[in-house]
Each structure stands twice: as C-alpha cells, then as structure tokens.
Write a structure and sequence with these properties.
Length: 381
C-alpha cells in the first residue's frame, strides 16, 4: 500500500477498527494487509496516531476490547503458540496475531529494542532567592555564587553551603528538574540530598524551630539541636526530628508519601491528625487519598537512599515504582502495553551513570521487557 489511494483506504479501515464499525469483509481486507506487510516500513495514517508506537498501542487496545482478552501477563514463550481459541471469528484472530507479532517481534524478544537512547542525569540545581533572583548553580564557577544580607552561598564541587546568620523571614527555594540531583548544606549545617524533580523551601535563619517544605524526594541528615526541633512539611504529613537520618519521597504525582528512617527517631503526623513514631528500619506510608498512616518494617532500607549514592537499588519493587524512578532520572515518558502485569516485582541494582538502554537491559534480564522509541519507554508483556 505505497500509493496514495491505498493509504487513504488504509486510513479508512484503521478508523473503522477504532470506531467499532468495521465489517467482516473490511476486517479480512485489513487483516490480509497487516499480516502481509508487518516487516515493511509502516505508514501511520494521519489522525489515527502521532507515531508508530502510539498506533500499535491503540490497535492492540481496540482488539483487546473486542475479544475481551484477559489483562494478566501472558508468558512470552506462549506468543508463538496457536491462539485461535481466544476468539470465535477467524478474522479477529488474524488481526490479534498480527498485532502481537508486530508489537512484540519474536526475533528480538530477548533484547532491549532501541530506536534512540537517553543519557543519564547529572548534577543540577536552580535557586530562587528571596529577592526574586534565580541562580542556575551548575553554570556557576566554584566560590561564592550569591549573598543575601550576612549569608553567603558557596559552591564547591557540585555542592552548595549556606554560611552566616540570616533572618527567619528570608526564604530560598532550591529546585531540581527531572534528570538532576544536588547536595545542599542548610544554614543550620543540616545536610540535604535533593533527588530529581524536587524542591525544598527553607529560611536563611531559624527561630525556636527549624522548618523546611519538601515537594518530591530528599534524604536528610539533621544537625542535632534539642532546643530547636526540625520539621519537614511534605504532601499530607509533617515530620518532626531532633537529629537523625531519613528519606522522604512525596511527589505530587505519586499516590502516597513514604518516609524511611535509617537512624534516630522521628514522629510522623498526617493531615488527618494521626501520628506515629518511627524507629530505624521502619517506614511510614500516607495515602494522598486518605490521611491514614501505615507503618512497616523495611528489609533493605538502603534501597530507599541508593539514589543519593548513584545507584538504582530495587528490592521487591513493582513495575510502576521502578519506571517512575527511571523516568524521573532520564526525563523520559513511560507507556504500558495493555497486557503488562503491574503487580510484577523486581529485585536488583545498577549504576545510574549509564545510558537508559543499559539500565533496561538489567530489567530485561529480570523479566521486565521494554523498548525505547519516540522519546518514550514502552513497557511490554
């Protein structure tokens, strides 16, 4: 179907498939073309999809709805077996088989399919100062990069520190984009590692208490000062500490806020006025839909802070959580094929300073299959 007339006909058949108005004869016509031309350069009709990958997902979803295909994960070894019992109509089977073959090429099923690649993230931070100025820290040379009253901000080898005594009313906001991380020493000498796609608001001076506001993820090592308790405000919770080490993950697009304690003791209070005390090796989970606090023991608490040490460390992590971490670091979109089993878990670790395709090879070896195309990670059954 290389000429213009055939392209128009193909677009018509595609739209009828998606609308559910295709006749048996038209479906057979489309099935014959689909199975005959799978290995040829593919034309995506305008209006059907913006890319080859989006077209594949749309057609697979439509076919799946027509035959009521179960959403549980289908073992990859079964894809080559006859599937004619799935549907009563032979034409539907032909389309289904063609789509699965086209979407999951059997010749490369054990490889990560890459049309393009993503480089790993790097050190980067933007500061919003109290007077409205912004400082792109990674573009600054080592040395003093800003001054606010008696407080100086100094950069040394991809870290910044606040030095001097400032006013509690003067606030700064430190922000990382997706694909960035940074280390900050706060005015009270507490240390913060800010993960990708996160922001931290804090004062240049502290009164009777020290308060910061977090959106995203950060690891804290709090300078102990019993006279001035430290508070972290994040989505749906308030964390109070004296001196301790803990990680907070509270992204706006997550379904819950998770706080993991590695050393010391902290108290968690939810927006629903519930409170719990955490001991080392425990973490709290607060749903963004309900202000309840759940505590659980963590078998590998170091997995929650491996990002600050430059590694992905997954311990019985589900696909959704894994792909969120990866997408934030590589600033890549993620799409899931309809038959992906979202309850699948994976354990393993790999450095974060490598290209995305190398990370996906590790997942692939553990049974999580992906491909990269159209600036997107596609997760496959």
């Amino acid at each position: 179907m290389a000429n213009e007339e055939n392209k128009i006909r193909l677009a018509e058949l595609e739209q009828k498939w998606l609308d559910g108005t295709i006749t048996d004869a038209e479906a057979k016509e489309y099935a014959a073309w689909y199975n005959q031309h799978q290995d040829e350069p593919f034309f995506v009709p305008e209006g059907i999809a913006v890319s080859r990958e989006e077209h594949r997902l749309k057609m697979l979803q439509t076919i799946q709805q027509k035959i009521d295909l179960p959403t549980r994960k289908t073992p990859r070894s079964r894809l080559k077996k006859p599937i004619y019992k799935i549907a009563a109509a032979a034409v539907v089977v032909a389309i289904l088989f063609g789509s699965y073959y086209f979407f999951f090429p059997s010749k490369q099923s054990k490889d990560v399919l890459v049309q393009q690649d993503f480089k790993p993230g790097n050190k980067g931070l933007t500061l919003l100062l109290d007077d409205g100025r912004t400082v792109a820290v990674n573009r600054e040379q080592d040395g003093v990069i800003a001054q606010q009253g008696d407080v100086t901000i100094t950069k040394i080898r991809n870290t910044i520190s606040y030095n001097g005594r400032g006013s509690e009313s003067i606030k700064n906001v430190a922000t990382t984009q997706y694909g960035e991380q940074y280390y900050i020493q706060l005015p009270d000498s507490s240390q913060v590692w800010l993960n990708a796609g996160s922001s931290l608001e804090f004062s240049l001076g502290f009164g009777q208490k020290r308060v910061v506001t977090l959106s995203g993820e950060a690891y804290f090592e709090i300078y102990k000062d019993e006279k001035k308790p430290f508070f972290v405000l994040s989505k749906g919770q308030t964390i109070s500490v004296l001196g301790t080490h803990f990680n907070v993950r509270a992204y706006d697009d997550d379904e819950e806020s998770v706080t993991t304690l590695l050393e010391g003791k902290i108290k968690i209070a939810s927006s629903g006025n519930m409170s719990k005390t955490l001991l080392p090796g425990e973490e709290s989970i607060i749903s963004h839909n309900a202000p309840t606090i759940t505590l659980r023991s963590v078998a590998a608490p170091e997995s929650q802070i491996s990002w600050k040490n430059g590694a992905f460390y997954f311990f019985d992590s589900n696909i959704k959580d894994i792909m969120k971490q990866i997408s934030r670091w590589y600033n890549a979109k993620v799409q899931y094929a309809p038959a992906v089993d979202m309850t699948t878990t994976f354990s393993g670790n790999t450095p974060m300073d490598q290209n995305l395709s190398d990370v996906l090879k590790v997942l692939n070896a553990g049974g999580i299959h992906c491909r990269i195309a159209d600036s997107t990670i596609y997760v496959l059954p």
